[in-house]
Specification:
Number of helices: 11
Distance between the termini: 91 Å
CATH architecture of the largest domain: 3-Layer(aba) Sandwich
Number of domains: 2
CATH superfamily of the largest domain: Nitrogenase molybdenum iron protein domain
Strand order of the largest sheet: 3-2-1-4-5
Largest sheet: 5 strands, parallel
CATH topology of the largest domain: Rossmann fold
Radius of gyration: 25 Å
Order of helices and strands: HEHEHEHEHEHHEEHEEHHEH
Structural class: alpha/beta
CATH class of the largest domain: Alpha Beta
């Protein structure tokens, strides 16, 4: 009898230990991946998927150029995208680090810290709404957030369809620009996220000239002369440019010859993915509907 009791006690201990091990394993498995990002397009996408990076590069500049989704305060700023703080990143022990081809020179160093995923979105003549969806699903597959990706895509398409119904039917083609200085602009057209967003709500770019892999042409403002369409300026403006434009008679002439008022849009990442596309479409629609009131 004593032997039997001892044996039963032994079995109970084994069962308790195994149950505890299983619980711990399940808890570890349930923990989200710790990811770090160098590229802002990946940062905004991960945030939209509900997986905030433990570390990201140039957070302050992200807040100026990308704006949303907002980076949480507990995300560590790694410093420059071209020269991230490798020591700080190593201390965080990420499971995966995301980079884009623009920063692929960092891969040998980063791969000593964690697995590196190099994902490209902007390729020549390859930017479309489908490309943005494919990019989102690629990141989701690397981070076990596939369900979140499908929700994001579905919600975004519903939002864009709603915005398309709100856009005034009289809206002309758009001259979408960002100022580099007082005399030079990026004009966005084919292969740009801005054009993709505009297309999804029934609008188009008035710039039909050749664009680069990122979807823009860098030109002097004189190249806008004669183009029919509504000028859309995406902030931020370089220092001093706003005041200069107010006093620039040639710029005022360019606006007058388009026949439409200028629309100023808050900062939206020009090389973004789904979050930036929906944000741009939303801000643009809001401006257009106010202009027609």
């Amino acid at each position: 009898m004593v032997v039997m009791k001892a044996y039963l006690s032994y079995l109970l201990i084994l069962f308790a230990c195994s149950t505890s091990d299983i619980a711990m394993a399940e808890q570890e498995q349930a923990l989200p991946l710790k990811v770090a990002t160098i590229d802002w397009t990946q940062t905004e996408t991960l945030l939209a998927l509900g997986l905030p990076p433990v570390a990201a590069a140039q957070v302050a500049d992200y807040n100026s150029w990308v704006k949303a989704p907002v980076i949480p305060s507990n995300t560590v700023d790694l410093g420059l995208r071209t020269q991230p703080n490798l020591e700080r990143l190593s201390e965080l022990k990420p499971d995966r680090i995301f980079i884009s081809p623009m920063f692929q020179s960092l891969e040998p160093q980063l791969s000593r810290i964690a697995a590196v995923t190099n994902l490209a979105l902007y390729k020549k003549n390859d930017i479309s709404w489908q490309a943005l969806k494919d990019y989102t699903r690629s990141i989701a597959a690397q981070t076990e957030t596939e369900n979140a990706a499908e929700r994001l895509i579905k919600q975004s398409e519903i939002k864009l369809a709603q915005l398309a119904q709100e856009v005034p039917t009289s809206t002309p083609e758009l001259i979408m620009i960002q100022f580099m200085d007082a005399r030079h602009v990026r004009v966005f057209g084919e292969n740009s996220m801005y054009q993709v967003a505009a297309n999804e709500i029934g609008l188009d770019s008035a710039w039909h000239n050749k664009t680069n892999v990122w979807g823009f042409s860098l030109v002097g403002i004189d190249k806008l002369n004669g183009i029919k369409g509504q000028i859309v300026i995406i902030d931020p403006l370089p220092a001093g440019v706003e005041q200069h434009l107010k006093n620039d008679q040639y710029w005022q002439y360019l606006i007058k010859q388009t026949g439409y008022p200028v629309l100023n849009i808050a900062p939206v990442w020009s090389f973004g993915a789904i979050p930036s596309a929906v944000r741009f479409a939303t801000l643009l629609t809001n401006k257009l509907t106010k202009e027609t009131e």
